[in-house]
Amino acid sequence: MKKLIQNGTIVTATDQYAADILIEGEIISAIGLNLQAEGAELVDATCCYVFPGGIDPHTHLEMPFGGTVTKDDFASGTKAAAFGGTTTVVDFCLTNKEEPLQAAIDRWHAKSEHKAVIDYSFHLMIGEMNEQVLKQLPAVINDEGITSFKVFMAYKNVFQVDDETLFRTLIAAKELGGLVMVHAENGDVIEYLTNQALANGQTEPIYHAKTRPPEIEGEATGRAAQLTGLSDSQLYVVHVSCAQAVEKIMEARKKGIQVYGETCPQYLVLDETYLEKPDFEGAKYVWSPPLREKFHQDVLWNALKTGQLQTVGSDQCSFDFKGQKDLGKGDFTKIPNGGPIIEDRVSLLFSEGVKKGKISLQQFVDLTSTRAAKLFGLFPKKGTIAVGTDADLVIFDPHAERVISATTHYMAVDYNPFEGMKVTGEPISVLSRGEFVIRDKTFVGKEGKGRYLKRQKFGTPEESVMNKTITV
Ligand code: URP
Ligand code: ZN
Ligand code: ZN
Question: CA-CA distance, 86 to 342, in Å (whole number)?
Answer without folding.
Answer: 8
